[in-house]
Amino acid sequence: MKISSATMGASKRRLSSRGLGGALREQRAKLYIIRRCVVMLVCWHD
What we know:
It holds the Pfam family DVL. By secondary structure, the protein is an all-alpha fold.
């Protein structure tokens, strides 16, 4: 859990410096990565 809290602190600092557009782009990128991982796990066949 320490890693996630450190990551949240870093993203909050970046949000103020990059503005709303950068934060929105970052959130979309994270959602895309998560979605791809879920699809790979669901479609995994041995």
